[in-house]
Design a protein that fits this description.
Blueprint lengths: L7 H24 L2 H5 L3 H8 L3 H22 L5 H23 L3 H22 L5
């Protein structure tokens, strides 16, 4: 199979996705510190305190999977697509839990859009043979 050289926008999109997901990883780590959670707005405290283990695991898959998927995309690896698919599934599960507790949250809606866009983009670059 012939591999084509990616367009410069590939590197920008993959790097931006990595930055987005690294911010999510930092958010996840921040939420594991009770002192940090105590300084958050009450609505976030309610979400975090009431979050069951399965939702926390989904959150971890969402952000850490997204970071790994974007790193794999930057490395031009085929595994980027399935890893980003798992990340997107984690985003959907996390969003479902959050929406069931407090209703639509703009940050969660944005996360769904970014996760879907990264997965869609990974499917495109895979078809262009930019991944090995």
């Amino acid at each position: 199979m012939e591999h084509n050289k990616p367009h410069f926008s590939f590197w920008i999109i993959a790097a931006a996705g990595l930055v987005w997901n690294l911010m999510g990883c930092l958010n996840f780590i921040t939420q594991t510190n009770p002192e940090n959670v105590a300084r958050m707005p009450e609505i976030y405290q309610v979400i975090i305190a009431g979050r069951p283990a399965w939702a926390t695991i989904a959150f971890a898959f969402a952000v850490f999977g997204g970071a790994v998927g974007c790193i794999l995309m930057l490395m031009r690896r085929q595994m980027a697509f399935p890893v980003l698919a798992v990340s997107f599934a984690g985003i959907v599960v996390t969003a479902w839990f959050t929406f069931s507790i407090v209703g639509p949250v703009p940050a969660m809606l944005l996360s769904i859009l970014v996760g879907a866009a990264l997965l869609w983009y990974a499917s495109i670059v895979r078809r262009f043979n930019w991944l090995r």
